[in-house]
Amino acid sequence: MNRWKKKVPPANQPNIRPNLAGEGFGGRLGYYFTRALTNIRQNVFVNVVTVGTITLALLIVSLFLLVFVNLENAAENWSERVQVTVYFDRELSTQEQTALRGKIMALGGVSRIGYVSRDEAFKRFVGRLRGQETLLEGVRSDILPTSFEISLKRANRDTQGVETFVASLKGIPGITEVQYGEEWVRRFNTFLNFMRMLGALLGGFLVVAVVFIVSNTIKLTIYSRRDELEVMALVGATRFFIKAPFLIEGIIQGGAGAALAVGLLWGLYEGFLHNAGSFLTFNPAATGLAFLPIEYVGALAVAGILLGFVGSLTSLKRFITV
């Protein structure tokens, strides 16, 4: 009977247990990843639901981003129409044009200056009356003024920037009449500010909703395995040892959800481009409709990983105190 008696190590000999996670940090990390993958294989349905929830949530956010990015691009194209025109009652010599260009450029905020002669102005006028050119019979180009058409840089196209530039422009000797469509500029910038504010509000709401949905979905995943967590805690496993595989599992779920969301978004984008002609009166591709820039795709990937990590971390707090 004595041979079945449990052997107790001497008091001066340490009780050495095998390291299941391997030697060193790399071995532990490998164990955590292996355990996370094992958990995924053992709970396929729950993980599919979690990844599907993250995918759907990020797809909604990415669709909103796609619309917002293209609206911003359209607004940028429209803002290029913000133009300041300086009129003269006579033709300017080359030297006069050069001198005035230098003074205008010195004001700052100018991206391009174009000189419009009387002949060029007359050609434009005739072009606008296409089909009614007979109305201009006997009319000479002398009746039209010459002008400088000034395009501003993006940072100076807001209402305050345009008004400040025009006030400085009127201070240059030789410039008397300046037009820039005050009312159009004001309405356009009001519209831009409204769209940006609306985008920020909707984007913030979507982010909060996504975090809430994903966190609660992962919480259900953790709750379904609460017995496993309790057993691991009872046998002496450390908090980090218990949490690490679940955190890695959340990261994998978030990354997979982000990849699926971007893939679905790309499929929807391509499908819309190729089939929009059947129900729209214009070709979206011709309007410059673009997919998300690479930095936005990277941000979605990071967001998915963070969603999975934070969702797992907050869900584990119910069972494991930090």
UniProtKB/TrEMBL annotation:
<feature type="domain" description="FtsX extracellular">
    <location>
        <begin position="82"/>
        <end position="178"/>
    </location>
</feature>
<dbReference type="GO" id="GO:0032153">
    <property type="term" value="C:cell division site"/>
</dbReference>
<comment type="subunit">
    <text>Forms a membrane-associated complex with FtsE.</text>
</comment>
<keyword id="KW-0472">Membrane</keyword>
<keyword id="KW-0132">Cell division</keyword>
<comment type="similarity">
    <text>Belongs to the ABC-4 integral membrane protein family. FtsX subfamily.</text>
</comment>
<feature type="transmembrane region" description="Helical">
    <location>
        <begin position="194"/>
        <end position="215"/>
    </location>
</feature>
<keyword id="KW-0131">Cell cycle</keyword>
<feature type="domain" description="ABC3 transporter permease C-terminal">
    <location>
        <begin position="202"/>
        <end position="320"/>
    </location>
</feature>
<dbReference type="Pfam" id="PF02687">
    <property type="entry name" value="FtsX"/>
</dbReference>
<protein>
    <recommendedName>
        <fullName>Cell division protein FtsX</fullName>
    </recommendedName>
</protein>
<keyword id="KW-1133">Transmembrane helix</keyword>
<dbReference type="Pfam" id="PF18075">
    <property type="entry name" value="FtsX_ECD"/>
</dbReference>
<keyword id="KW-0997">Cell inner membrane</keyword>
<dbReference type="GO" id="GO:0051301">
    <property type="term" value="P:cell division"/>
</dbReference>
<keyword id="KW-1003">Cell membrane</keyword>
<feature type="transmembrane region" description="Helical">
    <location>
        <begin position="44"/>
        <end position="69"/>
    </location>
</feature>
<dbReference type="InterPro" id="IPR047590">
    <property type="entry name" value="FtsX_proteobact-type"/>
</dbReference>
<feature type="transmembrane region" description="Helical">
    <location>
        <begin position="289"/>
        <end position="310"/>
    </location>
</feature>
<dbReference type="InterPro" id="IPR004513">
    <property type="entry name" value="FtsX"/>
</dbReference>
<keyword id="KW-0812">Transmembrane</keyword>
<dbReference type="GO" id="GO:0005886">
    <property type="term" value="C:plasma membrane"/>
</dbReference>
<dbReference type="InterPro" id="IPR003838">
    <property type="entry name" value="ABC3_permease_C"/>
</dbReference>
<dbReference type="InterPro" id="IPR040690">
    <property type="entry name" value="FtsX_ECD"/>
</dbReference>
<feature type="transmembrane region" description="Helical">
    <location>
        <begin position="246"/>
        <end position="269"/>
    </location>
</feature>
